[in-house]
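ARCHIVE CARD
Drawer: 12
Card no.: 0347
Subject: one protein chain, sequence and derived structure
Cross-reference: see card 0346
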Amino acid sequence: MLLNKNTVVHVAGINLIPYLKAHVPIYHAWMQDENLQRATASEALTLEEEYAMQRSWRHDADKLTFIIKLDDRLSPDSNLPSRLLGDVNLFLSADEEGEGVVGELEIMIAPVEYRGRGFGQIALEAMLSYIKRHDSEIVKEYYGTAWNDVPEEGRGLKYLRAKIGEGNRRSADLFERNGFKMVAGGPNYFGDCEFRRGVRSRDKLRGVEWEDSDDSENDLDCDSEPEDTGSDDGGEYGEKIIEDEYEDEG
């Protein structure tokens, strides 16, 4: 997607930056890790295939991605690979249950030493803020020349979802903390459970059956309003998320 090609998002010690050709060798090295391949349901690609994938992410209207990068102030090492943490992605598709466009989120923190330190939470919250601010623009690029035929009620994402492996409790907890709730029906054929929320954390999804939870302390009540955090982005960094023009580091 071209929408974010010149955008950097600054928040709480990290930056979300466009996925560029210069990042491909680093990303390719990450994805040789079999554990990451399993966690992301990915297969190892050749370097040439990885370059082709980067071009696809940049130009295809159904994909939006950011690379997660340490803020320069937290990383005195000027070496680019040491400052890249992973990526956060949005896949767009037609809603299988009716009209509209659905956005599917994925997030990855690649270096082991940076996992479990809150970077995934910060990056996901920044991505949710970006999606909320640019909801209509994202869907407009997806539809392309057909945009003028899209009714007003369809000019935004119908809902957001994440598909998480049945045993991946850490990822499930991350998305639940950000307003996602598991859809009823259990894991699909591939062992993935689906979590959903509206583009704004206060949006209510109609016609969705939710999975019941025995752990009421961690469950989110889909029939009640979420706690007011002071930001419609649903988290503590909402007012500190800043978008700027990205300058390529080369």
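Annotation on reverse: Residues 119-133 form the longest helix (15 residues). DSSP finds six helices and nine strands in the chain.
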